[in-house]
Design a protein that fits this description.
Length: 172
Amino acid sequence: ITGAKIANATITSANIQDATIQTADIGTAEITTLLLAGEAVIVPRFAEGSLNNHFLSGTAAQVVGVNVSNLGIPTGQTARLIIMGVVSAYSTSTNLTNLRLHIYSGTTLHNTVGATFGAAGIAVTSFGSFLVGGSYNKNINLRVSCTSNPGGSSTKSGTSFVGKIVVMAAKR
């Protein structure tokens, strides 16, 4: 058959090599692998970075960042950015201080978490999310700073950080 026009058909089983379907109404679908072109639903971004032998103070310093732009969001719609980050800290100083891990987009602070940090290493995780529009173009980054610890210090010398950040945009 080179061409057929069928008004109504019930097909129990079919094996189709290649198909072009313009419109479909699918009740329930079981899909082994789904690949949507052009980051149609989720836009993944990942980066890792480090900040070595840093003098930790109250001023937030960037450990790792990733640029997020060209999300392909239709005009008038938004996407939710979902940020997951972890920073590991190591220091030669035994001073206790309160390490603060911040999520920034550009110069805007979105989230801060903290943990007490001594001579032993520590890993701090942070999560956040916010809505963005189609023209969004900013660096999402993890920054570190510290505050004074009762019985401790408001600074920490000789501190090195390793950070990883994952940013995903859920577009639909």
